[in-house]
Amino acid sequence: MKILKMLLSTIFLITLIACTDKINDDDIKSIIDEPLVGYIYDDNTSRYINEDNGIWYIRENEKNIIPKEEFVEKNSIINSENFIIENRENSVWELSEIQEVIVEVKDTFYSLADESYSKHYRMDKDWYYEQVKKLNNLDDIDIIQWHEPFKLPIYIDSKE
Q1: Are 27 and 18 in contact (CB under 8 A)?
Q2: What is the SS3 assignment for 37?
Protein backbone atom coordinates (compact mmCIF):
# COMPACT_ATOMS: atom_id res chain seq x y z
CA MET A 1 0.00 0.00 0.00
CA LYS A 2 2.87 2.38 0.82
CA ILE A 3 4.42 1.76 -2.60
CA LEU A 4 1.10 2.47 -4.30
CA LYS A 5 0.73 5.76 -2.38
CA MET A 6 4.26 6.76 -3.35
CA LEU A 7 3.62 5.87 -6.99
CA LEU A 8 0.43 7.93 -7.04
CA SER A 9 2.14 10.92 -5.42
CA THR A 10 5.00 10.66 -7.94
CA ILE A 11 2.52 10.65 -10.84
CA PHE A 12 0.78 13.65 -9.29
CA LEU A 13 4.06 15.55 -8.96
CA ILE A 14 5.08 14.80 -12.55
CA THR A 15 1.67 15.99 -13.75
CA LEU A 16 1.92 19.12 -11.61
CA ILE A 17 5.37 19.95 -12.96
CA ALA A 18 4.24 19.31 -16.54
CA CYS A 19 1.28 21.63 -16.11
CA THR A 20 3.51 24.52 -15.05
CA ASP A 21 5.41 24.38 -18.39
CA LYS A 22 8.63 24.69 -16.35
CA ILE A 23 9.63 21.05 -16.54
CA ASN A 24 13.32 20.29 -16.75
CA ASP A 25 15.49 17.18 -16.43
CA ASP A 26 16.52 18.01 -12.85
CA ASP A 27 12.88 18.05 -11.70
CA ILE A 28 12.18 14.65 -13.25
CA LYS A 29 15.43 13.14 -11.94
CA SER A 30 14.71 14.27 -8.38
CA ILE A 31 11.25 12.70 -8.50
CA ILE A 32 12.43 9.43 -10.04
CA ASP A 33 15.36 9.15 -7.64
CA GLU A 34 13.18 9.29 -4.54
CA PRO A 35 13.74 5.99 -2.70
CA LEU A 36 10.91 3.53 -2.18
CA VAL A 37 9.20 3.66 1.19
CA GLY A 38 11.44 2.08 3.83
CA TYR A 39 14.62 2.59 1.80
CA ILE A 40 17.37 5.19 2.15
CA TYR A 41 19.96 6.21 -0.42
CA ASP A 42 23.55 5.38 0.55
CA ASP A 43 26.03 7.77 -1.11
CA ASN A 44 28.98 5.44 -0.39
CA THR A 45 27.55 2.49 -2.33
CA SER A 46 25.13 4.35 -4.65
CA ARG A 47 22.40 1.95 -3.57
CA TYR A 48 18.95 2.23 -2.01
CA ILE A 49 19.03 0.15 1.17
CA ASN A 50 16.09 -1.12 3.23
CA GLU A 51 16.46 0.19 6.76
CA ASP A 52 14.91 -2.93 8.30
CA ASN A 53 16.38 -5.90 6.44
CA GLY A 54 19.35 -4.53 4.45
CA ILE A 55 18.01 -5.63 1.05
CA TRP A 56 19.13 -3.15 -1.58
CA TYR A 57 18.34 -2.10 -5.11
CA ILE A 58 19.76 0.24 -7.73
CA ARG A 59 18.19 2.40 -10.44
CA GLU A 60 19.07 1.45 -14.00
CA ASN A 61 17.28 2.55 -17.18
CA GLU A 62 14.45 4.01 -15.06
CA LYS A 63 13.81 0.63 -13.39
CA ASN A 64 14.41 -0.56 -9.85
CA ILE A 65 16.82 -3.49 -10.10
CA ILE A 66 17.13 -5.98 -7.24
CA PRO A 67 20.30 -7.99 -7.96
CA LYS A 68 20.26 -11.77 -7.93
CA GLU A 69 22.50 -11.81 -4.86
CA GLU A 70 19.67 -10.33 -2.79
CA PHE A 71 16.91 -12.61 -1.57
CA VAL A 72 13.39 -11.23 -1.85
CA GLU A 73 10.28 -13.05 -0.71
CA LYS A 74 7.79 -13.48 -3.57
CA ASN A 75 4.99 -11.64 -1.80
CA SER A 76 7.04 -8.93 -0.10
CA ILE A 77 6.79 -6.53 -3.03
CA ILE A 78 3.95 -5.46 -5.25
CA ASN A 79 4.17 -6.81 -8.80
CA SER A 80 5.38 -4.00 -10.97
CA GLU A 81 6.94 -3.55 -14.38
CA ASN A 82 9.50 -1.35 -12.63
CA PHE A 83 10.89 -4.27 -10.64
CA ILE A 84 13.02 -6.99 -12.15
CA ILE A 85 13.83 -9.92 -9.89
CA GLU A 86 16.72 -11.83 -11.40
CA ASN A 87 17.20 -15.59 -11.24
CA ARG A 88 19.68 -17.01 -8.77
CA GLU A 89 22.99 -18.27 -10.15
CA ASN A 90 22.75 -21.88 -11.31
CA SER A 91 25.60 -22.79 -8.98
CA VAL A 92 23.50 -22.14 -5.83
CA TRP A 93 21.11 -25.00 -6.58
CA GLU A 94 21.85 -28.24 -4.77
CA LEU A 95 20.06 -31.47 -5.69
CA SER A 96 17.85 -32.43 -2.76
CA GLU A 97 15.89 -35.38 -4.12
CA ILE A 98 14.66 -37.03 -7.29
CA GLN A 99 10.95 -37.59 -7.68
CA GLU A 100 9.60 -40.17 -10.09
CA VAL A 101 6.25 -39.98 -11.83
CA ILE A 102 4.72 -42.37 -14.33
CA VAL A 103 4.20 -40.79 -17.74
CA GLU A 104 0.54 -40.75 -18.77
CA VAL A 105 -0.84 -40.42 -22.30
CA LYS A 106 -1.64 -36.71 -21.83
CA ASP A 107 1.84 -35.84 -20.48
CA THR A 108 4.57 -33.96 -22.33
CA PHE A 109 8.11 -33.13 -21.31
CA TYR A 110 7.05 -29.55 -20.58
CA SER A 111 3.90 -30.43 -18.63
CA LEU A 112 5.92 -32.70 -16.33
CA ALA A 113 8.95 -30.43 -15.99
CA ASP A 114 6.91 -27.23 -15.51
CA GLU A 115 4.93 -28.68 -12.64
CA SER A 116 8.15 -29.50 -10.81
CA TYR A 117 9.91 -26.29 -11.90
CA SER A 118 7.17 -24.17 -10.31
CA LYS A 119 8.48 -25.26 -6.88
CA HIS A 120 11.80 -23.52 -7.55
CA TYR A 121 11.63 -19.77 -7.00
CA ARG A 122 14.12 -17.68 -9.02
CA MET A 123 15.63 -20.63 -10.91
CA ASP A 124 16.57 -20.33 -14.58
CA LYS A 125 13.92 -22.36 -16.43
CA ASP A 126 16.18 -23.36 -19.35
CA TRP A 127 18.83 -24.60 -16.92
CA TYR A 128 16.17 -26.68 -15.11
CA TYR A 129 14.97 -28.20 -18.39
CA GLU A 130 18.56 -29.22 -19.18
CA GLN A 131 18.85 -30.95 -15.79
CA VAL A 132 15.61 -32.88 -16.43
CA LYS A 133 16.82 -33.90 -19.90
CA LYS A 134 20.14 -35.18 -18.50
CA LEU A 135 18.50 -37.02 -15.63
CA ASN A 136 16.17 -38.84 -18.04
CA ASN A 137 18.83 -39.37 -20.75
CA LEU A 138 16.70 -37.56 -23.32
CA ASP A 139 18.10 -36.40 -26.64
CA ASP A 140 14.67 -35.46 -27.98
CA ILE A 141 12.15 -34.03 -25.52
CA ASP A 142 9.30 -34.92 -27.88
CA ILE A 143 9.91 -38.62 -27.28
CA ILE A 144 8.97 -39.72 -23.79
CA GLN A 145 7.62 -43.20 -23.16
CA TRP A 146 4.10 -43.62 -21.81
CA HIS A 147 3.68 -45.70 -18.66
CA GLU A 148 7.41 -45.36 -17.88
CA PRO A 149 9.02 -43.57 -14.92
CA PHE A 150 10.06 -39.95 -15.49
CA LYS A 151 12.55 -38.39 -13.08
CA LEU A 152 12.19 -34.84 -11.77
CA PRO A 153 15.01 -33.22 -9.81
CA ILE A 154 14.11 -31.20 -6.73
CA TYR A 155 16.66 -28.59 -5.71
CA ILE A 156 17.29 -26.46 -2.66
CA ASP A 157 19.08 -23.13 -2.56
CA SER A 158 22.44 -23.87 -0.92
CA LYS A 159 22.87 -20.19 0.04
CA GLU A 160 19.81 -20.12 2.32
Answers
A1: no
A2: coil
The reply to whether 28 and 48 lie within a common domain is: yes
What are 57-76's pLDDT values in tens digits? 667 666 666 665 555 555 55
Mean pLDDT, range 14-36, rounded to an integer: 51
Task: Supply φ then ψ for residue 40, to 5 degrees.
Answer: -125, 150
- What distance in Å separates the CA atoms of residue 35 and residue 50, rounded to the nearest whole number? 10
Burial zone of 141 (CB within 10 Å; 0-12 exposed, 13-18 middle, 19+ buried): middle
Q: Mark whether 68 and 8 lie in a shared domain.
A: yes
> Do 71 and 102 sit in the same domain of this protein?
no
Residues 67 and 98 grouped into a single domain: no
Residue 135 sits in which domain range? Answer: 90-157
Greatest CA span in the chain, whole angstroms? Answer: 71
